[in-house]
Design brief:
4-stranded antiparallel sheet, binds heme D, alpha+beta
């Protein structure tokens, strides 16, 4: 088994009321300052001790900054307190009174001051429902504040907050005044190197290698120094409600590592190396030359109904026979393998690892296996093949393209040998402000059926590039100005329009692949995440394409037929409530009556493994939801070739024997479970050969 990394993505955890939003983290506070109360202080002491923050020797503002509260909360009058991980504390005094008077309150406080004190000393006694995304998660508001702050400081905070908003204070979620930044924390060379590696493996996907931010916020010293080591360690350890994974709680990072990472992100980011064509070629290996490969399938299986299943933390794919559910082969691929795509004929599977390693698998071999591999960058997410057959030529199985996060470029390769021969940098200028961006990452790539072109989405600059591969050594590229944060997307049912999520911009960008231009831009709920989306015929609005969202519990349908349904074209015609945010993938099939949807990154464990179906004939609500397993997360759907069965991955823990993961197979007509394929190591994406070649979703 290769290097194991558990669940990477970022979505947002949930915080409680105050402070650094975290559980047990170490503190920089000298021992003599620590006076941890074993019991919450008597409420009367608080009100007697403080009337206003001004009367105190200690400054509430300093204490709020020292405790790291600014990293998670909006607090008027406190420089830098613009965090959106926990509740907005702008009117917390009144909010606290409201809670106490409501029937929902489960604590012992009878006044706003007592409520605030309880929130600091016993944060889990009552969980506010004012966290972004809903109820705050137990354990997110750190109980360790009592270790980090003196009694006086806590009292000052309580008094200050109880009186909010105070006259003359800004209530907007904007920083006021100067943020107090600490000194740059020091790391040894060894720690710095270790932190660099962890950051690249786990954090760069969302924050960018250069830490300029994308799906996650920018982590450059100008942003991080003001938050300080305590708050940052806490966030890293416990996650946030807006997508930061809880690395500590998942057991991925220790408290010491979380603190090391907190210090690391307050230092200037190191710049990772570039990669030339020559370096790529040094990694290139052909195990079976094209002339030595079979000229027809060497087995009796229906290889068009094979599934390439990502075994994420094993660095493998499982090739599974969709008729018999047998694992035909476990094939080593890149590290934390991301996706697979098929050649136009379907004979070859191309699998890309996060480490930029591409594997070419021949399905016609007696035991299908890797016939070539190459590494074309250090960090990648996308791969696609040449699919055009038409008057401009037959490009089936001729070329492949890999989209990289770092270095930010794409590479064109020979489709049968993987010999890399063309590298194109995506470093360029943002579409809107025309500013140079050093790290515009390549997100989704799809192959056009209308032209010999790939549609390449350049995330940070917000450009969709139409890369013509007729002469791939001298490719022509049309750059379409679209929207920043382009991420994932797929075709409409006619395969003329490509719909891609500009996720942090809350938009779906529509590209007309026939005309080669921007067709429309559609506003969506928070953070659309379609995968490739799902196409179906709405009973009222005709052909639609669907996405769910990370930020909101909502599945929308967008009209995709400007000719016959011009009224609904590029409009959100349905907004169907889901169980909550955190959904990553949807799927359907032209033969199916359902749209399937997951909730992989929901904030609670039960919802994470709950899947739902929506009936196409009544697309106003979920028809049925159920837990697909009693552990792990249910993620990603794929149909078999006939469109009669749906496969769902249970993404377990590679270190947990018996719960590493499995695939659950449902009868699509009855929604009954048919089979399970057990003991797979962290299965995530599944790609049926026939459906992937033909873009059926
Ligand atoms: Fe993915 C597709 C990027 C995290 C599973 N993912 C994609 C695509 C991109 C992308 C750009 C579109 C490829 C295409 O169509 O050409 N993914 C990223 C990230 O940057 C991110 C947010 C963080 C990271 O560091 O990787 C991320 N992705 C994840 C996960 O955590 C998932 C759930 C499990 C994993 O692999 O780590 C995950 N991503 C997938 C899957 C697809 C995907 C299964 C393909 C969906 C499809 O049906 O086509």
């Amino acid at each position: 088994m290769k290097k194991i990394i558990p669940f990477f993505f970022m979505l947002f955890g949930i915080a409680l009321l105050l402070g650094a939003c975290a559980g047990a983290v170490t503190t920089d506070v000298p021992q003599e300052e620590i006076t941890p109360p074993t019991e919450p202080a008597e409420p009367t002491e608080v009100t007697e001790l403080v009337d206003t923050a001004d009367d105190l020797e200690v400054s509430a503002v300093d204490a709020l900054q020292k405790g790291g509260c600014v990293a998670c909360h909006i607090i008027p009058g406190v420089p830098g307190a613009v965090g959106t991980i926990g509740p907005d504390l702008t009117e917390i005094g009144a909010v606290a009174e409201g809670y106490i008077q409501s029937g929902e309150y489960s604590g012992e406080a009878t006044t706003a001051e007592e409520f605030l004190l309880e929130s600091i000393t016993s944060p889990d006694v009552f969980l506010s429902d004012d966290c972004p995304g809903g109820t705050c998660q137990p354990g997110l508001m750190p109980s360790s504040l009592t270790d980090q702050l003196t009694d006086q400081e806590i009292e000052a905070i309580v008094s200050f907050l109880a009186e909010l908003p105070q006259e003359g204070q800004e209530t907007a979620a904007e920083p006021s005044g100067t943020v107090v930044a600490g000194d740059v924390p020091q790391l040894t060379d060894e720690e710095f190197a270790h932190a660099t590696e962890i950051f690249f493996d786990r954090c760069a996907g969302c924050h960018g290698v250069l830490r300029n931010g994308a799906t996650g916020p920018a982590l450059t010293p100008e942003n991080t120094l003001a938050k300080g080591t305590t708050a940052l360690s806490a966030i890293i350890f416990n996650g946030t409600p807006r997508g930061m994974p809880d690395w500590g709680k998942q057991g991925v990072l220790t408290e010491e590592e979380a603190e090391m990472m907190a210090k690391f992100v307050q230092n200037e980011p190191p710049t990772p190396p570039e990669m030339s064509l020559e370096q790529m070629k040094e990694t290139w290996q052909v195990f079976v030359a094209p002339e030595d490969r079979p000229t027809e399938p060497q087995h009796d299986r229906d290889w068009e109904n094979f599934f390439a299943v990502t075994l994420r933390d094993a660095g493998q794919i499982a090739l599974i026979d969709g008729d018999t559910y047998e694992v035909v082969n476990h094939i080593n691929t890149g590290y934390a393998v991301h996706i697979s795509r098929m050649s136009a004929t379907g004979r070859y599977v191309f699998t890309i690892g996060r480490d930029g390693k591409l594997a070419l698998i021949d399905l016609w071999m007696e035991v299908p296996d890797t016939v070539a591999e190459v590494q074309v960058c250090y960090d990648a997410r996308s791969v696609e093949t040449s699919k055009y057959v038409g008057k401009e030529g037959d490009f089936s199985d001729q070329y492949a393209i890999v989209g990289c996060y770092w270095p930010p470029h794409f590479t064109i390769l020979d489709g049968e040998t993987l010999e890399p021969f063309k590298v194109v940098s995506t470093r360029s200028y943002t579409y809107d402000t025309e500013e140079y961006h050093p790290e515009p990452r390549v997100a989704a790539i799809v192959a056009s059926h209308h032209r010999p072109e790939w549609i390449v989405n350049v995330k940070e600059t917000g450009q969709v590039w139409l890369v013509n591969y007729q002469d791939p050594i001298n490719p022509t590229i049309k750059m379409i100005e679209a929207e920043r944060f382009l991420h994932d997307g797929g075709w409409d049912s006619t395969q003329r329009y490509f719909l891609v999520a500009a996720n942090q911009a809350n938009k779906i960008v529509v590209i007309d692949a026939e005309e080669g231009d921007l067709e429309a831009m559609v506003d969506t709920p928070e953070i659309p995440h379609p995968g490739r989306g799902a196409n179906w015929i709405d009973p009222e609005y005709g052909p639609v394409w669907t996405t769910s969202h990370l930020g909101e519990g909502s599945l929308i349908a967008i009209g995709t037929d400007p000719e016959n349904h011009p009224e609904s074209a590029w409009q959100v015609v349905r907004d169907i409530p889901l169980l909550g945010g955190g959904s990553l993938f949807v799927k359907t099939h032209p033969n199916s009556q359902w749209i399937w949807v997951d909730h992989v990154l929901a904030s609670d464990e039960v919802t994470q493994r709950t899947i739902c179906v929506i009936a196409k004939e009544n697309p106003t609500e979920t028809y049925k939801c159920w837990e697909a397993a009693d552990y792990g997360r249910a993620v990603h759907f794929e149909y078999n070739k006939e469109g009669t069965e749906v496969w769902v991955s249970i993404w377990g823990n590679a270190d947990q024997p018996g719960e590493t993961g499995e695939i659950v197979i449902y009868d699509d007509a009855t929604l009954e479970e048919i089979a399970r394929i057990p003991d797979l190591v962290t299965p995530t994406g599944k790609f049926n050969v026939y459906n992937t070649v033909n873009d059926i979703y």
